[in-house]
Design a protein that fits this description.
The complex is a heterotrimer of chains A (about 160), B (about 475) and C (about 220). With about 160 residues, chain A is α+β, with helices and mostly antiparallel strands. Helix content of chain A is about 25%, strand content about 20%. Chain A has one domain (about 35-150). Chain C is of the alpha/beta class and about 220 residues long. Chain C folds into two domains: about 5-115, Response regulator (Rossmann fold, 3-Layer(aba) Sandwich); about 125-220, Arc Repressor Mutant, subunit A (Orthogonal Bundle). In chain C, about 40% of the residues lie in helices and about 25% in strands. The longest helix of chain C is centred in the C-terminal third of the chain and has 15 residues, at about 185-200. The chains are: A alpha+beta (about 160), B alpha+beta (about 475), C alpha/beta (about 220).
């Protein structure tokens, strides 16, 4: 009988709990997104893709980065495969697993390297602002083509 | 201490135990439910807090200049919300209450793990959830490093605490509601268990009181039913052995009665011719005369023995029916002594008239047997004292012999018990005192034997003045 | 000296009693069964019948009843001690007295003589009480001139009671005077005999005129 009383008291003690102070617990991945500039991708003399850090004091958004990319490499030995006269506005739509980029160009106006420049720059910003490295990019061109549906990833990073 | 609080009755115990178990069960269920619910609420709250904090930081981080200045930190702090502290190196933005809340453990965890960390603390009895995180610096290939910016935000859990309290209260309320139902159930259960127990008790009482037909009905197949069955079996075996014993006793008594009855016919003949023989003996030679006289004497003795035996078997069979009438006890004693020629050998001390309702013949037998016993085994003078006391009449027969031995005393009323085996010359049947005692009992009285203070044995016959027909 | 008819089924007991009573001067005729006994009773007319109640065939009680139906000859029954039922039934059947078996011849003889005796004390002429006339010399009793047949015991009871009208006799006194019993006599003898006597002399035996009951004491002769 003594045991029953003990058990009852124990239970009552346990039942009186609310929000208790706790130890430090892990809360997941830390947020990210600060940067001293944005990384753009251009082409070197051998035709290889090269990252160029543009000191903007901040990371900025994907469309800001693409706008900078379209303005060209500036004063350096690097070149770009994106036509200079192209309009600079790119519409960015972020989906859970991919980023859709509406490019104001036709598929034939871009070389493979030019496409890679856009993809790498966009995915780089995405990753830097906390996105997944598995995310792919889909380039939607002005004319209807099967290439508008191809999921692309940056050859340098992944 | 606890023991003293424990109730004694089986019913009370069952009810208390039942109620206690129910209350415990309800409390346990309520506790488990409340615990699970509060765990879910707290973790959901925490998840929401960390996710919004992280999302808000990530929402604004790309727009922050790096390395940040005070204005940048302020923007970040504003984006995360109230009760937020943002630090970068020596720079800091935010209120001091949060800075006070943040523990060293949390700060260390944030710096070392470079991951988001949470901790619940209590300050001034207000529960807080602290979310601390570094803001990371990630390169395009996915590798990241701490940027040096740390964000700490505090979320007030008072609302959560209140919801939890409500939960606990309703759980306790539910448990309390279950209590009266439990008591009712316990009463029913106790009744179910105690009814057969009570039946068993009644049966046992009846058995103890001698009603060997008492049985309890066995229902079901539980332990109580087994116990009931066992008790029934026990009662049955006791009953059968009692019946066998009674049968044997009855057989033995019937045998004694039959034997004495059968002896009566030849004794009638013997009694009839003994007189003829006795008269004729005078004319015989010495040896024949002695033999004839012995035959006559022994015939009379045999007659008396058989009559005593029959008397005893009538007591055994319960067919001894006394016929009560008004008797003067003193006169009865005197008549008894006179009829047997004992007047000279016995002193009588009796008042003039002692009214008594008794069976005349049985009273005579009792007095004759007691006095006869005193004359045979005691020594003269033998005294008979008749006295009245209230509603009883006592007749005391005392002798001046050696008294009764310690060993003899318990057996003086036994049948055929002879105090002195060597003195078999006594002409008594060995049934005299036994018959006297039975007769006393038929009257509702008793006979006691003891040594008189002055030596000698003293038998006291006590009879109720008004014997009642039974 | 009397002519006795002994009815007893056991041959040894029968012969033994015959011998013993013979020695006391009685003339004993023995019968083996009830039927035999009744036959002999009618042919010889004895002074007294000694009757064993336990008889094969017509039992003792029936024999007693049949004798009493036609005769005032005294009957003594032989019974076992304690068989109260026998005693009561026998007395109700009309027996005058009983002797407990095994019967001692001297006791039996004393009863026989007592039961046969008809007179009490010395004759003192004729007692007349209302319709009842008792002649103490001739021992004749008549009611309204009609002679009444009484057994010797009934006659002696009436003589004893009427000797002192109004005086109360205890049962014990009556037993000693009428039946000549000792102090242990059976009072039922008196009660039964009183009943038989009342049936013969009282107009209404339920409210007797001559033999009155005195509760707790005994009887007295009524008309003072």
């Amino acid at each position: 009988m003594r045991r029953i009383w003990t058990a009852a008291l124990l239970l009552l003690a346990l039942a009186g709990c609310g929000v208790q102070p706790s130890e430090v617990a892990d809360g997941g991945r830390a947020p990210t997104g600060v940067a001293s500039g944005v990384t753009l991708y251009f082409v070197d003399a051998e035709g290889g893709l090269v990252p160029q850090l543009r000191e903007t004091d901040r990371l900025g958004s994907i469309s800001e980065a693409l706008s900078l990319l379209f303005t060209g490499p500036g004063h350096s030995e690097l070149s770009t495969d994106i036509p200079e006269e192209a309009p600079r506005q790119v519409v960015v739509t972020a989906r859970p697993d991919r980023i859709e980029l509406r490019v104001p160009l036709a598929f034939d106006e871009l070389t493979r390297t030019g496409i890679d420049q856009i993809v790498c720059t966009a995915l780089g910003v995405h990753v830097q602002s906390g996105g997944s490295t598995d995310t792919t990019a889909v380039l939607q061109f002005t004319q209807t083509t099967a290439e508008s549906k191809v999921e692309r990833s940056c050859p340098l990073t992944g | 201490m606890i023991r003293r609080w424990w109730p004694r009755g089986l019913r009370a115990r069952l009810i208390v135990a039942f109620a206690l178990v129910t209350a415990l069960g309800a409390a346990a269920a309520a506790w488990a439910g409340a615990g699970a619910a509060s765990g879910a609420i707290v973790s959901e709250t925490e998840r929401y807090a960390t996710e919004t904090t992280a999302a808000q930081i990530e929402g604004i981080a790309p727009q922050l200049e790096y390395p940040p200045d005070q204005a940048g930190l302020d923007r970040l702090r504003a984006a995360v919300g109230a009760d937020t502290l943002v630090t970068y190196g020596d720079l800091r933005s935010g209120d001091w209450t949060v800075a006070d809340l943040v523990t060293d453990d949390l700060r260390t965890a944030v710096r070392v793990n470079a991951r988001l960390a949470t901790q619940r603390v209590e300050a001034d009895s207000t529960p807080w959830l602290l979310v601390g995180t570094p803001v990371m610096f990630t390169s395009p290939d996915g590798t990241s490093a701490a940027s040096g910016i740390e964000v700490y935000s505090a979320h007030d859990l008072t609302g959560v605490q209140e919801r939890l309290d409500d939960l606990t209260r309703s759980a306790v309320g539910t448990a309390l509601l279950a209590l009266p139902v439990a008591v009712l159930l316990a009463l029913a259960a106790a009744g179910g268990v105690l009814r057969p127990v009570r039946r068993l008790r009644d049966t046992a009482r009846r058995l103890a009181a001698g009603d060997l037909d008492a049985r309890s009905p066995t229902k079901g197949s539980d332990e109580l039913a087994e116990l009931t069955g066992t008790i029934n079996e026990m009662a049955a075996s006791v009953q059968s052995s009692m019946a066998a014993m009674r049968r044997m006793q009855a057989d033995a008594r019937r045998f004694a009665a039959d034997v004495s009855h059968e002896l009566r016919t030849p004794l009638s003949t013997l009694t009839a011719v003994a007189e003829v023989l006795g008269d004729a003996a005078e004319r015989m030679d010495d040896e024949a005369r002695e033999s004839a006289r012995m035959a006559v004497t022994e015939t009379h003795r045999l007659v008396r023995l058989v009559e005593d035996l029959m008397e005893v078997s009538r007591f055994d069979a319960g067919t001894a029916r006394p016929r009560f009438e008004e008797v003067d006890a003193a006169a009865a004693v005197r008549d008894c002594l006179r009829a047997r020629g004992w007047t000279d050998r016995v002193e009588v001390d009796a008042p003039g008239l002692v009214r008594l309702r008794a069976d005349r013949r049985r009273l005579d037998v009792m007095v004759a047997n007691l006095v006869g016993n005193a004359l045979r085994h005691g020594a003269p003078p033998v005294r008979v004292r008749v006295a009245e006391s209230g509603d009883r009449v006592s007749i005391e027969v005392a002798d001046s012999g050696p008294g009764l031995d310690e060993e003899v005393l318990p057996h003086v009323f036994d049948r055929f018990y002879k105090a002195d085996a060597a003195r078999s010359r006594t002409p008594g049947s060995g049934l005299g005192l036994a018959i006297a005692l039975e007769n006393a009992r038929v009257h509702g009285g008793d006979i006691t034997a003891a040594d008189a203070p002055g030596g000698g044995a003293r038998f006291t016959l006590l009879l109720p003045r008004e014997a009642e027909d039974r | 000296m009397a002519a006795i008819l002994l009815i007893e089924d056991d041959p040894m007991v029968r012969r033994g009693l015959q011998l013993a009573l013979g020695r006391h001067g009685h003339e004993v005729e023995a019968a083996e069964t009830g039927e035999d006994g009744l036959r002999r009773f009618r042919s010889t007319v004895p002074d007294l019948v000694v009757l064993d109640l336990m008889l094969p065939g017509v039992d003792g009680l029936e024999v007693c009843r049949r004798i009493r139906a036609s005769s005032e000859v005294p009957v003594i029954i032989l019974t076992a001690r304690g068989d109260d039922f026998d005693v009561v039934a026998g007395l109700e059947a009309g027996a005058d007295d009983y002797v407990v078996k095994p019967a001692q011849p001297t006791v039996l003889d004393a009863r026989v003589r007592a039961v046969l005796r008809r007179s009490v004390g010395t004759p003192d002429g004729v007692r007349e009480h209302r319709d009842l006339r008792i002649d103490t010399a001739s021992l004749a009793v008549s009611l309204r001139g009609e002679p009444i047949a009484l057994t010797p015991t009934e006659l002696r009871l009436l003589l004893t009671l009427s000797r002192a009208p109004g005086r109360v006799f205890s049962r014990q006194q009556l037993l000693e005077e009428v039946w000549e019993h000792d102090y242990l006599g059976d009072s039922r003898l008196v009660d039964n005999c009183v009943q038989r006597l009342r049936a013969k002399i009282e107009a209404d035996p339920a409210s007797p005129e001559y033999v009155q009951t005195v509760r707790g004491f005994g009887y007295r002769f009524g008309p003072a």
